[in-house]
Amino acid sequence: QVQLVESGGGLVQAGGSLRLTCAASGRSFSTYVMGWFRQAPGKEREFVAGISRSSINTNYADSVKGRFTISRDNAKNTVYLQMNSLESEDTAVYYCAASGKYYYIPPSTREEYAYWGQGTQVTVSS
Helix or strand or coil: residue 90? Predict the structure, then answer.
């Protein structure tokens, strides 16, 4: 089992950047596929980005491609989400998620991730 804690959220102006961090505790972090999701008020939780166990493969939602970058450091049990060129539409609570299953390409569906953090708020002002 793995426990996840997100940090790095905050208030930023449109066009700015933020880096979210997800710290994992528990066993064998490198065996988990990791993902970031977000949920805006009144909307369903949606996939943002995913990264495979060894960082070889990543997967992004079309809405963030070219602006967001997911990465991980298995030695530090940490996954990151670098967010650039932020837009008001990026305002949401961002969640870190983990899956202990093997995937060649990180999945984009919530049901494939068994472990979740509590979330961190990102607010982009226009």
Answer: helix
